[in-house]
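## Example record

The block below lists the input lines for one assembly entry, exactly as stored, with component labels intact.
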Amino acid sequence: MSGAIRIDKDLVAASATPLVLGILAEEELHGYAILKRVAELSSGRMQWTDGMIYPLLHRLERNGLVSSSWGSSEAGRRRKHYAITAAGKEALAERHEQWSVVADALGQVWQAAQRPTGIARPAQGWA
Amino acid sequence: MELRAELEEQIEQWRGYVRRRQAISTADVDELEDHLREQISDLAATGLDDEEAFLVAIRRMGSLDAVSREFAHEHSDRLWKQLVVAPEMPADGTPSWRELAVVVALAVGAGAAVKTGYDLAGDEAAFLRNVSLLVFPFLAGYFAWKRRLTAPVVATLLVPFAVLAVVLNVYPFEPGGSTELLAALHAPVVLWLLAGVAYVGGAWRSDARRMDFVRFTGELAIYYTLLALGGGVLVGLTAGVLQIVDVDVEPVLESWIMPFAVPGALVVAAWLVEAKQNVVENIAPVLTRVFTPLTVIMLLTLLVVLVTAGGFATVDRELLILMDAVLVLVLALLLYSISARDSLAPPGFFDALQLILVGTALAVDAVMLAAMLTRIAEFGTSPNKIAALGLNLLLLVHLAWAAWLSAGFLRGRRTFVALERWQTRYLPVYGLWAAVVVIVFPPLFDWV
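Predicted structure tokens for the full assembly:
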């Protein structure tokens, strides 16, 4: 829990889908492993309420973006694994594009905010 | 290993709490438990003892209320009753006698309205035109009370209701004309969809709520049939006994029992569906599994007979009307089984069977359309024919696209949700068509 910062609920909601899809695009995982990966990727600064990932995964499954299968854990418990589908990959590519635009714009805003003089310089993204 | 045992017990207890949430299925609990155990063992590996690890893992899982709300949001089909019936009320909080009193009052009111209508209406046709208008306010009233409908929603219900009431009673129908009968037959369809708006508490744009209404309609049909059967047996036995002692119950039956029992049972059935959802939930999938193959056989038989009979022009009007009824029945079965299916389950044998059902229904529909067009070409148009033709075209579009989507689902190209959405989005079209038949047909065909 060290270093976790509170992230606005709407922001979590908006970023959860691309994050989960992106993580599943690397490999097939179960819910707990997905959350661990999220913590890893954000160096432990991003933490969701664990229980909430399952309704999200079920929604993605209902919409055909991921598929699931029951397997078993090392200890022999029933474990549900999720894998991304072709439609999921498409959706991920689409989200990627949207997020690049947002991130790019935000990046410029952060940069501008760091320069108190406020002199306008040509933005990097506008080559 | 005392600690281990204690931990197992705690997890078992937690499982029990989660199991009690209607929105979380057993498979989901397994999934959550696997998560919890993994979290605990990871935490234990960092040096926490079992007790601490359990507490931290539970806390990270999030409040059970919030999580179960999320599950409910995603899986509204699992607890559609709980969601709509008791808006944020404790499970045992509502005094059930109050609801019972409301239901009984509304049922008696519906009976009284029908009885008065029957006595006041000059002729049978006038009563037939108005009977659905007489029952509707009580059924819609129940939902309005139950869902605490807002004024705008009530207004959206009242305006079309008033329009229908005016049209059905002001139009100068020719006595015994077919536009009058058509209007009387189609008005209940419009009213039923309006009742649906009341049922979903005004959230008629939501696909999930529309599906709830489809489910409700199916369950209502089952409950109504059960009530009718039970009532029939009771009345029959009573009449039988009384006949032996030379008391004739027929007049009482005709003028009092039937006018009150038939509409009253509708309101009571609606209440039963609301209150006793879980009982039928287990019957619904069974029923659809029994009747889908049987209906396929029936349709194939009809298809063979219709095609080999040849000479479509000789197919008479009654047959066409009956066949329309058969197709509507098939559609109801399809809708009901879709609504009863778990949308996450992978395609299986039953889905293939359903596609066969839709395919045969399409074939029958095509044959019917051919027969109708031949009849129209030969004898010209009539209100009956155009109404039947319109319904057939609507069914054709509905079934054809459903077949396309379900074939896609079977081949893994589409999700079941796409198939579900098509059903719920298409439903209002039937209401619009029925409204056209009630409002536009009579003047169009000169009231005959």
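The beta strands of chain A are 29-30, 66-72, 78-84. The interface with chain B takes residues 30-32, 47, 49-52, 54-56, 58-59, 61-64, 73, 75, 77-80 of chain A (CB under 8 Å).
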